[in-house]
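User: Just a sanity check before I run the rest of the batch. Below are the structure tokens for the first item. I only need the designed sequence back.
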């Protein structure tokens, strides 16, 4: 592409100098009243223009081959708004310099040169100031949005969050405002799980599809299915890429995807982390009501659970099997898999 542009530019320069040579030939012969035929002088001028134009075109092409990549490298780190602000500063600086032109006309000889110098100085000064103050200029030029609801956030949901089932209850709270984005590859993965020959996988896949149907029918938040044209290696890469494109929040229950997304600068909401953060906080000495549903590993122990799934081991609780009793928390054990509470009947 670059070579084609340079070739066209060479031809244009040669044609321009040829026309200029012919024109100068006519002007020269008329001005000096030469005895030769004007057409001969014009033809000679045209040939001279071709030679001069060819030489200039060759050196101009060499210059542009160096200049264009340099400019490209120079401006590659600047965004379009930054470039617009830069040229805006140059324009304002050059415009301000015009105010001094009436005074410079009073200076003989060097006045015209000072005009050119003043334009260059004020243009550079305008570019420098606009570059320094570009963040403030962006704020001024950016329209203020009074209606906060007009700015929609995008929440990208993966397969693990859909299968988990808790996403439905989470969305029903209305805490999320925006658009739910589901990549097409996630739906394909969910369908494969729902069609699996394994009973448990099939049940989980169908539960995920039921969850999506429930969310869609509730209309509490719009759902958008997005197909990706870019060929990526894995579903996780698709999720991260879409989250980056939409500048959205990735909702998942996958530990590894959570880590990868955060390492790549994506905001990630992990449902398990959220559930853990919202667990009931209890302290030793507090009283709780718990249903004893099974025996413990140790003799006479009873096992119960809080609403958030936290296990409670009740000493001498075996005799209360199938009943709800008041217990007093004696100690709390934090493990890698969660929290375990030990209690005694009150």
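Assistant: Here's the designed sequence for the first item:
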């Amino acid at each position: 592409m670059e070579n084609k542009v340079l070739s066209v530019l060479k031809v244009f320069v040669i044609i321009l100098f040829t026309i200029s040579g012919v024109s100068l030939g006519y002007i020269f012969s008329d001005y000096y009243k030469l005895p030769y035929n004007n057409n001969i002088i014009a033809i000679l001028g045209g040939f001279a223009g071709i030679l001069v134009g060819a030489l200039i075109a060759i050196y101009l092409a060499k210059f542009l081959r160096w200049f264009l990549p340099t400019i490209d490298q120079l401006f590659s780190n600047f965004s379009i708004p930054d470039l617009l602000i830069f040229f805006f500063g140059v324009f304002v600086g050059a415009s301000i310099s015009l105010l001094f032109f009436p005074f410079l006309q009073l200076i003989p000889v060097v006045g015209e040169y000072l005009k050119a110098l003043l334009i260059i100085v004020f243009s550079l000064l305008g570019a420098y100031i606009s570059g320094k103050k570009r963040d403030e200029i962006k704020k001024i030029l950016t329209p203020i949005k009074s209606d906060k609801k007009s700015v929609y956030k995008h929440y990208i949901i993966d397969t693990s969050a859909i299968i988990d089932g808790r996403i439905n209850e989470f969305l029903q709270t209305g805490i999320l405002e925006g658009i739910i984005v589901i990549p097409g590859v996630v739906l394909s993965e969910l369908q494969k799980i729902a069609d699996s020959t394994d009973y448990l996988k099939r049940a989980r896949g169908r539960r995920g599809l039921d969850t999506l149907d429930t969310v869609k029918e509730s209309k509490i938040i719009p759902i958008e299915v997005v197909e990706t044209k870019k060929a990526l290696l894995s579903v996780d890469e698709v999720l991260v890429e879409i989250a980056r494109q939409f500048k959205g929040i990735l909702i998942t229950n996958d530990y590894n995807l959570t880590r990868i997304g955060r390492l790549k600068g994506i905001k990630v909401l992990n449902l398990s982390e959220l559930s853990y953060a919202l667990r009931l906080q209890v302290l030793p000495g507090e009283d709780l009501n718990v249903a004893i549903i099974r025996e413990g590993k140790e003799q006479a122990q009873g096992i119960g659970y809080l609403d958030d799934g936290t296990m409670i081991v009740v000493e001498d609780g075996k005799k209360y099997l199938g009943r709800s009793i008041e217990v007093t928390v004696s100690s709390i054990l934090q493990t890698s898999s969660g929290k375990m509470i030990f209690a005694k009947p009150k």
